Amino acid sequence: MDCTTESQNIIIDVHVSDETPTNVQLELRKGLESTPRRLPTKYLYDDRGSELFESICELPEYYQTRTERHLLNQYADQIMSLTKAEELVELGSGAATKTRVLLDAMAQANQLRFYVPFDVSEGIVRRVAQELVKEYKGLHVHGVVGDFLTHLEHIPDGGRRLVVILGGTIGNLDSQSALNFVSSIHAEMASGDFFLLGVQLETSIKRIEAAYNDSTGVTAAFNKNILNVMHEMFGATLNPDTFDHVALYNKTDHRIEMRLRSKESQCVEIPGLDFSFELEKGEDILTEISTKYDHPRAEKLLKQSGFDMIKWYSDSEELIGLALARKP
Question: For residue 42, which of 181, 217, 179, 176 has the smallest C-alpha distance?
C-alpha cells in the first residue's frame, strides 16, 4: 500500500497494488476462458475511461445521471435530517458530481466533517479530493484507491456516517455478487450507520438501449477503451478498430449487456498473462452488465444483506430509485 498525504486535509491510500500478479492473471484468464468471454468491468475505469464516463453522463440519451441528481436535489435535506451523518463514504465515487448535492446538504445542516471517496481510478480520487477541500471549508478527505469488491476493509474508521453507492453501480453485479457485496458492506459498517443505494429501474427497452448506444459514439469509445487498458497493462493484441460496440437488453436477467464484437477472426496474444486465444468473427467479449431493479427487488437485496429499509425515493417516471437503509 502507498499512503500519501497531499495536504493537511487530504490523505490518499492506494491499494490497487495489493493485488498480486498471480491473482490478476487468474481473474483475467478465468474471464477470457468463460462463455461468453469476459473482461472485468473495473478495467473500463482507468483515468481515460473515467473521463469518458463523465462525458457519457452529460449525453441526452443517458437519462440516469440527471434523473438521480434531480432526486438527490429533492431529498438530500431529508436524508441528512434522518441520518444525522457527519461523514460520507462513497463507493465508486468517480468525479463526485452528484455527491456535491449530499455534501451541500450536510454543510447546510452543519454536519459535514469527513468524506471518503473510494474508486479504482487514482487520478479521479486525487482530483476530487483537491477540488472538494477547496469547495468545503474545513472538510477532511480520506481517499481510497482500490477495487471496492476486494478492498472494503481499507475504509478508514470514523463516526456517524452514511455509506452511498450511486449511479446504479450495484447493477454491474449479478444477483449473487450483489448480495455478497452489499452483505460485505453491512459487515464493515457500525450499528446505526445508514446506507443509501441508488438503483436504475426497469423501463422501456428502447429507452434503456438508447442510453448505451448514443449517437455520438462516446459509449462505444468508453467500451473500446478497455482494450487499450489490456494492451497497456498486459501487452494484449486487442485492436479497438477490429471490434464493434454492442449493447442489448437481456429481459430474462433484467439487464443491459455491453459487449465488444469481433469484426473478424483473430488470434489474440496476451504476453503479460502468458495466454492466447482465438476469436471468431462475430464472437463477443462481455465487458459490463447493468442490472435494472424495481422497488421489491431492491428492498429484498437490502433485507437479505441485513439492512432495514427506512425510505424509498423515486422520480415520477420511475426511472431511478434511492433506497435509504440502516444497519440495526
Answer: 181
Q: What is the pLDDT of residues 160-203, one digit of tens each?
A: 999 999 999 999 999 999 999 999 999 999 999 999 999 999 99
The answer to whether the Cα torsion of 298, 180, 325, 72 is positive or negative is negative
d(CA 308, CA 323): 10
Q: Tell me the C-alpha distance between 307 and 328, whole Å.
A: 7
79 in Cβ contact with 54 (< 8 Å): no
Domain boundaries, the chain: 21-56+206-291, 63-204+292-326
Other residues' Cβ atoms within 10 Å of the Cβ of residue 319: 22
Please tell me the pTM assigned to this model.
0.91
Query: Environment class of residue 112 by beta-carbon count within 10 Å: exposed (0-12), middle (13-18) or buried (19+)?
Result: buried
CATH of domain 63-204+292-326: 3.40.50.150
Cα–Cα distance measured from residue 249 to residue 210, given in angstroms and rounded to the nearest whole number = 10
Query: Cβ(53)–Cβ(45) under 8 Å?
Result: yes
- Alpha carbon distance 227, 264 (integer Å): 16
